[in-house]
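Re: your question from the hallway

Yes, I did run it. Sequences:
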Amino acid sequence: QTVVTQEPSLTVPPGGTVTLTCASSTGAVTSGYYPNWIQQKPGQAPRPLIYSTSNKHSWTPARFSGSLLGGKATLTLSGVQPEDEAEYYCLLYYGGTYVFGTGTKVTVL
Amino acid sequence: QVQVVQSGAEVKKPGASVKVSCKASGYTFTSYYMHWVRQAPGQGLEWMGIINPSDGTTTYAQNFQGRVTMTRVPSTSTVYLDLSSLRSEDTAVYYCVRGGFGRDYYYYGVDVWGQGTTVTVSS
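Structure:
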């Protein structure tokens, strides 16, 4: 059973920068896993932010960026806003199937 | 505009089956894959499977093999999720989510999410 692991929670001050990571139990995450990042606020449907490692959707604010670092997929929030407080999930592609990460709760404080 | 609209909430007894529908509009239905994702109360997102609306081919997550069936009706631009042998642990919000298009559909990830359908399994 493949497990995709994220930090359970992170806290960042308004205007600060925070980096979330996404690791696979199968080994290093590469571009071939086509990492997605998805934001979910309480009581709302999830909203995709990033696809294929670093590509932004048309609605994704510029302060969100995705990359690969140290064998993991990363999502960096720069100049964090209060409205960025949410749960963030990564989604990895495993050659036909997908697995969501465990999720990271980002608190802006 | 592009949207996917799901059917309403369901309440089922353990052992029963549930069928959730997802109607797409605003784009060419057969060009884009469709995922199903669920979220149990207070829990994370769980990927259930994917269907190619063009030819009906499916791939299911191992956790749901044997209990899940995804189908589509191109004439109505609708995909369906069938989940059988329901148990209390299947209580969740079920989402249909538009995926990518073409041979390299996985490159495009996911974009449009349905509003979610709450399925409650209770005796």
